Amino acid sequence: MLTVSLRCLLFAGVLAVAVMAAPAPAFAGGSPDQHDDQYISGDQAEGLVPPLESLTSLDCENGQAGPYPCKNVDLASSVPLPEFGLGSGNDVWGWTDPRTGREYAIVGTALSTGFVDVTNPENPKVVGELPTAGIPDFVLWRDIKVDGHYAFIVSEVSRHGMQVFDLRRLRGAGPTPTVFDADANYRGMDSSGEILSNSHNISINRKTDYAYLVGTNTCDNGEEAGGLHMVDISDPLKPRFAGCAIVRDADGDDETESNNYVHDVDCEVYTGPDRDFRGREICFGSNENAVVIYDVTRKKRPKVLSQTTYPTAAYTHQGSLTQDQEHFIFGDELDEGVLSSGGGGTVDNTTTYILRAGKLRDPGRVKAHAHGTTAIDHNLYIHGRRIFQSNYTAGLRIQTFNDRTLKEGRLREIGYFDVFPAGDPNDFAGTWSNYRFNSGTVVVSSIEDQLSGLFVLRPDLPDRTDGRKGNRPCPRDEATIEGTSKSDTIRGTSGRDVILSHGGNDEVFGRGGNDRICDGRGADEISGGRGADRIHGRRGADFLKGQKGADRLRGGPGRDKIRGGPGNDSITGGPGADDSKQ
């Protein structure tokens, strides 16, 4: 294991590219090439957005967190990627170490994959990087997913294949950032004999241990490559090609798109309303101009169940299934048009689409929800009944929904953090992707040269899907530890906990980590741990106590007794006659 300066590695990468003069990779048919010369560079953005700085602990107050517009989302910190020699940013994912509880952001860049410890959101630490495989030709795209304690990394870089990295190696990293090598690299051959070189994206079904590589140079239907390239990763260090899922060319016309090229995909063991397919492995592909649904249970004989398009389709980009698998919610990357290419969109505002997955062979009509912004939408992920969307120049947007609003084709925005405060033009700048940890921390990646960076955010959202503020800001779907309806003694772990007590007169004790503790309806006694905790009273005469760390203590409607600890605490009483002291 080699330890060197990341700045030196970046210089070496630049020098290698200059000497080799490597050509750009041959993109598979259907690959969107608009980002290469149309995204807003740091030079173009100069005067619009200042270069990203290292910032810490900016609460969202009166619609601003420092220079950034916001709503119900605080900035814990930001990490400028060029400061650490990590180049221009793109994708982001995450991993929580099950042994230590530490949280790591895994950040894709033009030249490498970076690893940032965000266990303490206010003090992120770059612990290392994994240089790109293949020819380092500054291709913007890189994508990461995690299965168990392995990261699987793909890129459009020529001859990159799929890197495999054992995340347990991060435990011994530091204090100087470490330059790692990959534990394995997959460059499998598809059924036609084509060897995997580049891949636009990757999705993993962790229940079946299959990876789905999309937008590759493989799995060709005779008109275009980029069909589903399926890989068995049950032995992570020895991935094996499992098959191609291909959309056949319907008309034999090379001038028309066959929707074989998959830009992104969500594959799950299906538990939704269509009884014919329950228990089968179903993939929802975002394929150029349509949502394509596959049955990939038998990898050697996958089936295309349906192709669903919509009137405003321009480039069906990416989406996610709801938790009950009744709806697939997705975005279209080009329907808003591209300002730097003269506009030409099919919609006026940022638009998110909703497809009911009730009948997989015939899903029905796609419904469209128009946002109040004009930015291009990018990656979205669903957690419970919330959607976390990275919408380029509009930043991170958080939507909520329920069964009724989905039926009506409506979403409700409950929070946002705009990483590109110069407005929301429909161009390729701002945020690319996001990842939400179980602790509630959300990491957001941003792109374009000197503005590239990682934002570490703390959403403080309403508890209700109708958008109104609830009494407790710890929704049940976020809880890592829960009490019962009786009087409990609840103790946190050494990691970051979201503790939710219910009825009864409970005793709740935080431990290590920056915990979020929400009491129930009884007269509870809550003590924070050593971290910077967020403690929220609810109904009842509660006793809330901060310990070490800069805690945030908030009383509820009852008559609360609130005591700060040794740190710089923020204490807010509730509607009752509270006894509050720093």
List keywords for this structure.
mainly beta, six-stranded antiparallel β-sheet, six-stranded parallel β-sheet, 4 helices, 44 strands, single chain, 582 residues
Provide structural commentary.
The protein has 4 helices and 44 strands. A 6-stranded antiparallel β-sheet has the order 2-3-29-28-27-26, with no helix packed on it. The radius of gyration is 24 Å and the shape is globular. Residues 1-48 and 464-473 have low confidence and may be disordered.
Structural class: mainly beta
Which residues sit in consecutive blocks of at least 5 with pLDDT less than 50? Answer: 1-48, 464-473
Question: Mean of residue pLDDT?
Answer: 81
- Major sheet size, sense and barrel closure: 6 strands, antiparallel
The proportion of residues forming helix, as a percent range, comes to under 10%
Instruction: Trace the largest sheet across and list its strands.
Output: 2-3-29-28-27-26
Please give the count of helices.
4
Overall outline: globular
User: What is the terminal separation in angstroms?
Assistant: 48 Å
Strand portion, in percent?
A: 35-45%
Radius of gyration: 24 Å
Query: What is the total tally of β strands?
Result: 44
TL;DR?
The chain is mostly beta strands and 582 residues long. The chain has 4 helices and 44 strands.
